[in-house]
Amino acid sequence: MRHNTEAKRQDHRLSTIESMNARIDTVERKRVAIIGGGISGLTSAFYLLKSAGKKGIELEVTLVDESRSLGGVFKSASYDGLRLDLGPECFVTGKPAVLDLANELGIGSTILRQSTRRTFIARGSFLSKIPDGLFALTPNLKDMATSDLFSWTGKIRMALEPFVQKQERLTDESVATFIERRFGKELLQRLAEPMIGGLYGIEPENLSAQMTLPYMRSLEKEHGSVIKGIIQKTVKRHSETGEWFTSPPSCKGTMATFDEGMTALTQMLEKCVQSKCKVIEAHADSIEPVNEGKTWKTRLSNGLQIDSDAVVVALPAKSAGRTLLQTDRWLSECLQSINYSSPIVVSLVFEKSAFKSAPHGSGFLVAGDTRKSVRACTFSSSKFKRRNYQNKVVLRVSVDSTKYRESSDEQIKIAVLEDLSRFIEITGEPLFCAVARHNEAIPQFAPRHGHLLKEIELRKNRFASLALVGNAYGAIGVADCITRAKEESQRIADCLFSVVNP
């Protein structure tokens, strides 16, 4: 059965490649340089080649990455037949980009939805379940009244949110300011802070509410209150569909992965484009426009120069800014002003006998007043039960990288196991431990980040054949990166191929 499935994937991959190698009936060849071989760079290559194949245009793609292996932060480790994700572990199905790409690659049938959404907040030595409404950061009175996360004083303060005056002039405040202003300090400290910290790796005081909580901000703007807005939308939805719960767009759907882990996506992308791409292992020193941006030259650390008709920059914003200094100094400065966090992820494999009671649910987030080393822990073998974990317990731990940046892997392992024992009764040693450090992997959307992005787009759009892709330009999810790469690739294709076929 597995052989037949693999054969079908191979046939689909070959048909995809054949469509990219469609009959060439044009006298002009176009060249694109893609700088960065992570998910955004590979997706850009895939869709550019696909567009060229459909139009019968010969496209020469050169993919530059300083790493020996492509995929960027999509990395994995293996232990006794298990494949463990060291980078992104899952994606949100509510945004269709990953599902669409997986189907185009022929691996849509290997997608696995999460088995449980049950998630906890760790405070003191206790794990308190997050109600669904609160997990989506869309508070409702029932969730607030029944949750044991909050004191009655905190619940009363949250219930008074509809009476909090609307901010008339919606400036881009921090997440911390917005949450505390509307719901009080307790919701901020006991729910928002651990959730935001677990995802972005920094404190909510340093994050833009406009970029991080756009749905809640829109509810305040349109209805004068988050809770009022949720009630009105819920009543409207019930009258239309019979359903009561309304979640924000970013929380629709569920979490999912692939049966072989998230690296299955980047590996299949690489297989699909490798026959039509020239891959160079090097660092891009500079990118410069020639003839007012009609062509480009990219100088590499190995002394080579790539001449191209278009360039796609799929690097972290700071690296992209340094590379584009000769293109546009102000664009370069804007990009380099975006700060990043560098998460540390620890993957642990245990025998089930190492636990008095095997972890259940999706995992937990650690409140700030309780945190030591662990920011969040995913019970991977419980969250995705259909993945073949060979009867092992697999935990994935997000570590506070600001405290452990200079620590050795062994020191991090010891600190994590000691910290986990406060919440989970672990009686045995792990069979395997892998520590992954992702340098400058998650952009920090500071207040006014939205204004910065508008300026970046304005400067970038002065060059029709320049594209910027990655997780710094709107949202950090896998689906968001793919969507951005697809849209920018289409823009580049329209620019190049309309010239070939007017």
Explained architecture:
The protein has 502 residues and is α+β, with helices and mostly antiparallel strands. β17 and β18 form a beta hairpin. It has a seven-stranded mixed β-sheet. A five-stranded parallel β-sheet has the order 10-2-1-14-22, covered by helices on one side. A three-stranded antiparallel β-sheet has the order 5-9-6. It folds into three domains: 25-72 and 263-338 and 446-500, FAD/NAD(P)-binding domain (3-Layer(bba) Sandwich), CATH 3.50.50; 76-117 and 340-442, Polyamine Oxidase, Chain A, domain 2 (Alpha-Beta Complex); 130-250, protoporphyrinogen ix oxidase, domain 3. α1 crosses α12 (263-273). The protein has 19 helices and 22 strands. Residues 17-27 have low confidence and may be disordered. Helix content is 40%, strand content 21%.
Strand arrangement across the biggest beta sheet: 8-7-17-18-19-16-20
Under the CATH scheme, the architecture of the largest domain is 3-Layer(bba) Sandwich
The portion of residues assigned to helices is 25-40%
Please, how many helices?
19
Shape: globular
CATH superfamily of the largest domain: FAD/NAD(P)-binding domain
Q: What's the main sheet like?
A: 7 strands, mixed
Low-confidence sequence ranges: 17-27
Cα distance spanning the termini:
49 Å
Please state roughly what percent of the residues sit in beta strands, choosing from under 5%, 5-15%, 15-25%, 25-35%, 35-45% or over 45%. Answer: 15-25%
Radius of gyration: 24 Å
